[in-house]
Amino acid sequence: MELRELRDFYDVIVIGAGAAGMMCAAVAGQRGRSVLLVDHAEKLAEKIRISGGGRCNFTNRKITPDNFLCRNPHFVRSALARYTPQDFIDLVERHGISYHERDHGQLFCDESAQDIIQMLRTECDYGGVEWMMPAEVRAIAAVRTEHGRYRVDSSRGSIDCTSLVIATGGLSIPKIGATPFGYRIAEQFGLPIVAPRPALVPLTLPPETLAELQPLSGASLDVAASCNGARFREAMLITHRGLSGPVILQISSYWQAQAYEKRDLAPVSIDLLPGLDALEWLQQKRGERALLANLLAERLPRRFAHAWCTLHGWDKPVRQMSPTELEAVATALSDWRIAPSGTQGYAKAEVTLGGVDTDALSSKTMEARNCPGLFFIGEVMDVTGHLGGFNFQWAWASGHAAGQFV
Ligand code: FDA
Q1: Which of 181, 216, 282, 393 could lock onto 168 through a cystine, CB 3.0 to 4.6 A?
Q2: Nearest CA residue ID for atom 29, ligand 1
Q3: Vertex 78, ends 44 and 382: CA angle to 5°?
Q4: Which residues does the UniProt record annotate as the domain RsdA/BaiN/AoA(So)-like insert (predicted)?
Q5: What is the pLDDT of residue 145?
Q6: Across residues 126-142, what is the average pLDDT?
Q7: In the predicted structure, residue 2 carries a pLDDT above the cut 60
């Protein structure tokens, strides 16, 4: 990033040049505000670069407020309605970026996530946004100068601004620059924090369960996973460390919520035959000479079916199984309960659940209710999307909302 002479005052300083920060800076700059974008990273927007396997799942066509976890579920409505997936798609198309749709309405770049980074940079250029990067922010203070309300003390000097936007994201992937900076600033100015914890994250298992499931390791299955009232249907992966795959990442956010809020480490329920009444199917097959494992192999991967039957001690032909045994098999197939012991943590989490409590913020502007001129946007807030482009759409929508009012 070019280093040029900086002024000692800007209308707006945005700290964090990620998805939300760049969107906000571009919108504010294009409204004619003088904007300084500050980031401590050497490389711009690393999280966008690595997202979606390098292709950035930049939004989702089917967004509803139900795709977000937030202590105040209504908070997201206003910003999402005012900046929709179609608004972002229009922007992507104006920049000539080709993209494609995958399952469940997820949109990805055809070429590279770098296209989205370049697009946001160009939008910032259109708004005359200035950059201070890499730069360390040492302290923030509330001041009363002729224009300024906040002073940012950085490794490159002190700069005042009227509006200060905190867009420093969550805690996931510390090795590419995630920090708790945003939470510390919130605390400094008296805003409450909903306890942060890793989400969209693989789940770990206690040693005894891990040993039991060892023979199933490597299996990938289309299942439905449920926990705490949520249910998702996608692929599950059994690994040597525990459970992974999209369906587990999705349910991890709900298992987490339950674990932390109710202090109750409930199991995750796995339906191995989603969309099928397992008991009805088994009853239709109850005269079969085949081993149960061979019957299950009609609907599940063969190796998995055999290892799963061995795990439960079901090694008989189906016709030798009693009605009670078949009922037990049906229950295990549709409601296989696995109790995780934890998660693989921020090193593997895609996002952070929790963050700056939205009750302390305006849902229209993202401004702190008790601190005029202080804004929080993106993942630093207590808003967490499902897997599938929802977290970026929140970054764009909240960044856009604040950009109109800073
Ligand atoms: P973001 O993390 O983008 O930006 C925060 C910025 O603040 C960073 O540039 C950081 O360097 C800077 N910063 C932090 N601390 C600072 C400090 N103390 N001083 C100065 N700067 C500081 N979502 C999605 O919708 N689709 C997807 O495909 C994916 N894929 C994906 C893959 C992986 C591996 C991860 C880890 C995450 C995703 N996500 C995703 C989630 C998505 O990346 C995330 O929700 C958004 O980037 C959040 O945007 P923010 O702008 O809030 O934070």
Answers
A1: 181
A2: 51
A3: 55
A4: 197-351
A5: 85
A6: 97
A7: no
